[in-house]
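Researcher: Please predict.
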Amino acid sequence: MKTRMSLCVGLAAAAMACAFPAAAQTVKIGLISTYSGPGAAQGDQIDKGAKLYMKLHADKLPPGVKVELITRDDTGANGDVAKRIAQELIVRDKVQILTGVVWTPNMAAIAPLTAEAKIPFVSANASGAKVVGMSPYMARVSFTLCQSAYPLGQWAAKKYKKAYSAVSDFAPGHEAEGCFVRGFKEGGGEVVGTVRIPLANPDFVPFMQRIKDAKPDVLFAFNPAGKQATAMMKAYGDLGMDKANIKYLGTGDITTDEELQGMGDAALGVITMHHYSAAADRPANKAFVAAYKKEYGADLNPGFMVVGAWDAMDAIYGAIRAQGGKIDPDKTMEILKQYKSTTSPRGPMSIDPETRDVINPEYLREVRKVGGKLANVELETITTAIKDPLKEFEKKK
């Protein structure tokens, strides 16, 4: 009797299982970005890139697997806030992967948490060279400043004799300055001055006047992408530095695609080195820009932070597929180390398995008018794949 009852219970359970499909496997991803304060525009770019990727690639997940994106606001370059919300995402929300982060100090603040909790983190933007090495559970698909600043210095030395460097006073700015100066000096150029500009609420005019008085051939600049870059560009134009034959050049942060139209004609002729331009003719980029405009507005262009978030989600989705939705942190990191993309809007890119840092193409660009609007026109591919030069310099010591 007991045997028959057990068999009946078993058959009933099996029937119930057939009648009600198994619940979907949910992968929780925590997105830390800047949704308020002066850096909200940058954070919005990351948010848009991640969500657009998810909308267009929902069918790329394994059967029965779905992704839940949980967003949190770090309010700006504030490591204490970033650390607190990362801890909440890990402990309370039980996320299995983290991504996002505009600011290098914020990425540095959450690094110990990712190591302690074994939570993989994929940087969509923060560019400080050394921060990825602060945790074995961090990888980056965005860029480092040295990847563009060093080859730009080498290129500039072939055309100009004297340079002045002006950068924002925090780690990425210091790295950009050091790498440009190194490349420029190696090419035989002379650096006649350097200045580091406060990150908070700077008045650019006194700094730019000092640079104008030094009469360099070229000004190298780095600002965090956004309103600061526009303010510095306008100071350059208002002081007539272009008419004084001081060429303005820098990393791609100073003429971001989403900010470019607000800079006005002062930006015309500015030369930058960067891994992405919304104006690029690559088929993958054309499709990406069209999808972005369809989703968010025909007058909006995606900047490099959109691309960083897009590629971060592509890397994460690849790790999810490879594990059938069952996320193991160590396996995830091994998969991320092997990440490669031939369909990124920026062109072919990958993650260096040794450093877990991005390997990028770099393009020489000039601001020109295309169809009556300002655009970063790619003039030349400087390199199809550059590792972070700072790490390469360290190897040679």
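Model: The two ends are 80 Å apart (CA to CA).
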